[in-house]
Input
Amino acid sequence: MAPGDGVAGPVARWASVGAGAGGGLVAGVLVGALMEHQGMVAGRAGAPAWVAFGVLGVVVGAAMGPLHGHRAPGAAVAVPGGMTAGLLGWMVWFLTGEPLLRGEAPEWSAEAAGRAYRELVGCLLSGGLTGALYQGAALLVRRLAPPAPEPGPAARVVVVGGGFAGVAAARRFERLALRGHRLDVTLVSASNYLLFTPMLAEVASGALQARHISAPVRAAASHTRFRHGTVEQIDPVRRTVTLDAGSGRPEALPYDHLVLAVGSVAHAAGLPGVDEHAFTLKDLGDARVLRDHVLALLERADLEPDDRKRRQLLTFVVAGGGFAGTEAVAELFDLVHSVLPYYPGIGEGDPRFVLVHSGAMILPELPPELGAYALERLRARGIEVRLGVRAAGAGPADVRLTSGELISTRTFVWTAGQRANPLAATLPAERGRGGALVVDATMRVPGLEGVWAVGDCARIPAPDGGTYPPTAQHAQREGRQVADNIAAVVSGRAPRPFAFRTLGVFVALGHRTAAGEIRGRRFSGLAAWMLWRGIYLAKLPGIEKRARVLFDWALDLAFPRDIAVTAPPAHRFPAAARFPRPEEGS
Amino acid sequence: MSAVPRAGGLRAAVLPGAVAGVAGGLVFGAAMAMLGTLPTVASIVRADSPYTGFAVHLVIAVVLGIGFAALVSRQRARAGELLFWGLAYGAFWWFLGPQTLLPLLRGLPVAWDLAGARALVPSLIGHLCYGTAVALVLVLLSGSRDRVRSGLRPTVLLRGAAAGLLAGSVVGGLGVMAGASPGPLPLAGLPLGLGYPLLFSAEREGAGPAIVRGAAYGFLCWIAAELTLPPLLRDGVLDWSHTAAAAAAGRLPGYILLGALTSALFTLLGALAAGLFTDDVRLARTEAPGARGLRATGHGILAGLAGGLVFTGVMVAAGALPTVARLVGGQSAAVGLLVHLVIAQIVGVSYAVLFRRRGFDLASGLGWGVSYGFVWWVLGGLTLLPVLLGGEPRWSAAGMAAAFPSLVGHLAYGAALGMVYYALEARANPWWVTRNEAEAARVAARQEQTLGSAPALWTLTAILALIIPLLVAGGG
Output
């Protein structure tokens, strides 16, 4: 609200409505009585004329409070406002309502208005008087009413994590604040943007600009206090979050309720060399690094006379046959083959793509038929899919598989392992698979008062006995629900268990191809690809990003992909930075 | 900057209010002397001398002047915009004075009948002139000349002249299409455009409020250029009679559109100049339209649809849907309804573009909506619809009276549009929830602007919209 304005409580609201109705009654009866006394109007339906004006006055007067936001706006505003409302009341009642009650169709003609001219003047004057009386009564109420008790301090809520769940929670808190909930919300995130992860692989392939799939948190939750920094420590006993905002000294953020939405990080499960030599695909930096790396390799391969080295440069291995890995290998394939005309030294059959997956079928999140379809489409393009094997380790120029095979490559993308952000492990609470915090159905962390967890870092029990999957559609709804639940607890009500049925899942398989299902209905090929694009375009945060991505896609249809390498030379890529340190995850 | 003293309320308002009241009384008194109505005022004290009438009139004028100064003392009215408070105040006292209190004081029955009101048209214009004079004198007494100086800058005057000439050409062309002589409309654009920045300063503001203000400004210019100056210059007498007003009513829509278009162009040219020639981004800082403008557009569509549905009742009752269907070559009511709802949404989007973030509560949403509905009655109902159907604009007293159902529909449409749009904007875009002091200052400035002359504009527009077609009907 603007300075000086407060949100009127229910008592004040009803008082203002009552004051306006009382003022309207007095004004209407006075004007109606004057008109009747002067013989200007006759009684209607056996009632004296002032009754109709009194009723109309009550209606117009009762509207004064809501119209003026239940404030006393000043006589110079209230009187004209009352006159305008009176004129509208004349239109509604004397031009429309009365003819209808008489069983006649309203004319709204100049003749009809001329016949009701007396009532028009009456409504105008009684409206003005109503406004004046409302102003006086509102001032009187304000003066006489006992001072409102000082509200207690607003509940302090700290949301850690600027992903789908965290931002959705913050936005929901904004709505709740608008409805009168007293919540002091702070959102903490190590990145100052919300990343739309479903399109990350397209950034890695150069089809989309990196900035276009990220929305600044300050814009996405523009009325929430935002702190850009890394959470170093959570003290659930003293209810404090320690924040490193880059100033050099830790800052303590006290909370009454803490929402952990810190997501997950790549996890190599201790496989030798993976941390040092594999690329990950978790954030924009990863995508940019991978794209520049691939393009730099193509530059080198184009000039490389040694066939063995060239094959090594042009071999791309992706570990993990889930959504991320499948989309990554498909997009890498698209990137390399779409820019090959720039590299005359590389033949069409030279690049080699390998997808390594430990299961019997890729994309276990999809029905087997769609997984088989995806496998068939990838293999049809020449992508080698190794099922039932895992990566056993990685070196600077090779990847070892559990089958014993050694693949010579300079590009190894790791998507096979995820675990909850290490920050979750610092809490004295039960953790489940992947280190995710075990929460109850309302998303509260048992044993930790005021701590809630949502998104990829939480294992939320589903009604079917399992847990909800770590997808964006779930994270967004969990974020909204946790905000509602916290508001409920602050208001003394019980939180509600989270319940959501998956709408559908889609996986992009590269050039004009996708597969997926919506509520059990399966799609594949071009139709699925168009659905994928349409749905995810609509899900992008903000109209601006949708427009930019749409332009990117449109330009991609008309122009070749950009092969400019904007990063430092490949040999300077800090391999160790590809996996986040524990404190970077939030 | 305030036009009148704020501190002290009524006490501080006595002297400037009295002086302004005297000035207004002299203006109105001179007109009454020419119209020969002073003896009527004298009858309040059971006399019939015009001198006594003038004295009584002057006393009343002083009392009302003090009341006006007290009323606006707490308003953050900008100097030039106090004019509209004066006009609204004058209109209000026309109802309360000659139509109500004067007969009571003379021991006569109060007669709020249309025939009596038509006979009092000269008094209405006199009251409006009184309000204008009181407001302008109060502005002068406040010592607020900075804004007048800003309006005297050559570039600003040039902008006003360009806006006026352009608007005059467009509206004059429509006047020619009306079949009747457009009168001095094309040329009136120049003085009207030059006068606009002098009266209202060159301060940047939203185009929506400027349009509403311009429409009221056009009405004022109509009184001056059509009702007052011609008989005064030609015959040396005033003729504010109902008959004269009805005869000049044919050019009233033109003046309203001229004022609205001039102010809109003046504002847009200012924004364009700021966008092109301001090399300091801090001075040119405006929110990119794409950021939240598209959401506002969606809200405009919804609000326009809501208003259109309200309007539909009037359209059905008046049997106007087949007429609207002719816009696209159809004849059925169903096609007419479709076209009507599409137009309602387009106008709703224009409302969203023009009035975004101008609503601070339901009252302001209602006020802007009703005012915008009236402007669209003049532009759409009286002008564009008949022209697009191959006819002439209904710029006449009879035409305005015939279009009264459409006026009721447009006002109802505007009311629903403004309130629904405000509700949508408040629900989804709580922009007044401030995050820092800079934001708070921006919001406060906008609220101050709305609390300036906006309430007076809304009321004045609603009164004139409903009264003028009735008053001028049957006289032309």
Observations:
- Chain B has three domains: 10-143, 149-271, 289-472.
